[in-house]
Design brief:
By secondary structure, the chain is mainly beta. The strands form 2 sheets. The protein has a 5-stranded antiparallel beta sheet with strand order 1-2-8-4-6, with no helix packed on it. It has a 4-stranded antiparallel beta sheet with strand order 5-7-3-9, with no helix packed on it.
Length: 171
């Protein structure tokens, strides 16, 4: 009976009228992107054989590491124009047929430095981020890719579509 009573007293000794805990969190680099233009239409200005142009808007969230941190937004044409007979990123019907773009981004991003040529083989630059960069809490908007597609007389009439996949990363 004495052993049971001593064990019961030890259990009571662990309780107090208050207690504490340490709350710890490890905040790491993160990035997310939202494409605000789900379908980008390319159109010409109405002039004969003027290039086709259009704009894709996007919003990003990013946090890069304080020391040596980096981040990037890239894009890749993951599905070439179809059906066949029209424009093609991988195998254009004429030399010089290109899907090109320029970048317009809001700080803290830095836009691609010059006109880029879209590719089905490789990801190409849209924006870069340096160390200790932070977007707005709700995301940083006002970013765009401004497309230009050569208007080649070799294209057959019809509607064609391709898929551009945007990727964001942070370290």
């Amino acid at each position: 009976l004495l052993a049971v009573t001593l064990n019961g007293m030890a259990a009571w000794a662990q309780f107090n009228n208050s207690g504490t805990t340490t709350i710890a969190v490890s905040v790491s680099a993160e990035a997310a992107i939202r494409i605000d233009t789900s379908s980008t239409s390319l159109a010409n200005s109405g002039q004969m054989f003027a290039d086709y142009t259009g704009t894709t808007n996007f919003t990003y969230k990013i946090r890069t590491s304080q020391s040596g941190g980096t981040g990037a937004v890239t894009l890749k044409i993951t599905s070439d124009f179809s059906p066949s007979g029209g424009p093609s990123v991988a195998t254009p019907p004429s030399a010089g047929d290109l899907l090109k773009y320029t970048c317009s981004v809001t700080a803290p991003a830095t836009a691609c430095s010059s006109e880029q040529t879209a590719s089905t083989a490789n990801s190409t630059a849209v924006a870069n981020f340096g160390a200790d960069q932070h977007s707005d809490t709700s995301g940083t908007s006002g970013n765009s890719v401004n497309w230009t597609l050569t208007n080649d007389a070799q294209y057959k009439t019809g509607s064609y579509s391709a898929t551009a996949t945007f990727t964001i990363s942070a370290a």
